[in-house]
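Blinded run. Sample ID left blank on purpose so nobody reads anything into the name before looking at the predicted structure. Input follows.
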Amino acid sequence: MTKPQTLNSPLDDDDEIVTLWGLVIEGYLATHQGLMDEIAERFGLAPAPFDILLRLVRSPEQRMPMTRLAHEAALTSGGFTKVADRMVAADLIRREPCDTDRRVIYAALTDHGTEIANKARVACAEILRRRVLAPLGPDTAIGLADAMRTLRSANGK
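Blinded prediction complete.
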């Protein structure tokens, strides 16, 4: 006869660990959706263009190779091309050829794109202070970021 397993931690229970992960996802999704709703309301930016603007404004020379930018933004090349086309039409970015490798095309911020990206970055920080930092406090928010960094590293990114 086998002995029933004794639980050392509530997280040894299958339902508890699944619930814990569900809460992490639900918290992230609710927070992210609130952030994106406010950014869309203030700047008319969908999530992908907003992400691209933030990546570019924080990059050297405010430009990146388009293939790298698509990868970092988790977009397919076709999906990225559509987003980039809309961003070019909105005068947020321009395409620039590389001087040393004709296979490389950069996405670079326009003056208008830089202005919007800087304003959106400031707004994003304000929104995150209200939606993340205020409810969690600095220590928990930093701990959460550290935990997510650990998960990202442990799971292949």
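Unblinding after everyone has recorded impressions. The radius of gyration is 20 Å.
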